[in-house]
Amino acid sequence: MIETLLIMWRESLEAALIVGILLTYLARSGERAGMRYVWAGALGAVVAAVAMGLASNGAAARLGPDAQELLQAGVLLLAVGVLSWMVVWMHRNARQMGGDLRRRADRALATGRLVGLAAIAFVAVFREGVEAVLFLWGVVVQRADASAPALLAAGVAGAGLAVATAWLFFRGFAFLNLQTFFRVTGILLLLVAAGLLTAGVNKLIGLGYLSPIKPQVWNTAWLLREDSLLGALLGALIGYRSRPSLLEVLAFLAYLPAMGWALHRADLAARGAAERAPARSAA
Amino acid sequence: MARPRLLLTALLLLAATARAEERSVPLAVAEHGFAPPEVEAAAGERLRLEVTNQTAAAIEFESFELNRERVVPPGRTVAVYVSGLSPGRYEFFDDFHQERRGALVVK
After folding, report:
1. What confidence tens digit (pLDDT) does each residue in A124-180 have?
2. Are A131 and B60 in contact (CB under 8 A)?
3. How many domains does chain A have?
4. If you measure CA to CA, which chain A residue comes closest to B31?
5. Chain A positions in Cβ-Cβ contact with residue B75 (cut-off 8 Å)
6. B18, A210: Cβ pair inside 8 Å?
7. CATH class of B21-106
8. Structural domain contains residue A282
9. The pTM is what?
10. 3-state DSSP percent of chain B in helix, strand and coil, to 5
11. A269: number of Cβ within 10 Å
């Protein structure tokens, strides 16, 4: 019972944290419409995950498990792209915070960005949702007796616990002032994206498409194990692994300066636009 | 500009050389656990672990030591590649039923 609860907690934690960070960000910047899209993406993913989980359980599943894993790796890399794009936009948004009311109205989220938000929430929840459904379905199959409903309830409680964990985590952010808050969430989202990139690379290595170059660059298991509370939290949030391969470490490290450059370019563009704006209003 | 591109090409080449020869190792997961419970390999060898789930419920092949994690639906087989390992004992388990444990012993 406790085991079922713990497994579901772990399986749902990453999704809860990613959705949590998006909702927290949108709530603090007053983007109610964006929050609705995040919820829609997350709830749509729950439905899709149940459908997909049940479908892939049958022997007649169209896609083989290896093809599914490859698809997952592709979706992960796609999510990294969308998330990076969102971070650049959020960065620009944060710079304009505190501008006059008209500027705020101009900032209303464009449809593309709303869809982007929904897509990130969808991917985060769907990815773990399919595994959770497969796990819970197995619980039901194995205990075709009276204990199945109780175990199922324990599983759902575990997912609820993950949501509560994410909620508690982001409640801590409420005490930050707005500027610090945007900076912290921005950095956190970058680390999340780098973690997703690493996870995608890890899948491609496991599928034999990429070489790890060196399977184990270091071993920090003595310091932090993946199955500890903090290890699970960091694993879910930024892709912490105690024994990463060299290729994964390189992917993580290469992503951050690349994004630093993209953010710098966004800054330059924003400054250029600010300089042009007064000239236009004077004309 | 030329240098980063060269570095990237070299990395990609290095990464792509992965498709060298490999040895398939069947690994079944039954109700009582992994069969065989221990698999042996030579150091540096490239292995294709063929994990077959013989039970009626989904399992998750997981190993912190190997840095691998794969869900296997009931009755299905997945391929998990590992390569370039140093001698040692690499434990794996079924994350959904943690009493099922096994190890890859690299010599």
Report:
1. 999 889 889 989 888 887 776 767 888 899 999 999 999 999 999 998 888 888 888
2. yes
3. 1
4. A142
5. 59
6. yes
7. mainly beta
8. no
9. 0.87
10. 15, 50, 40
11. 12
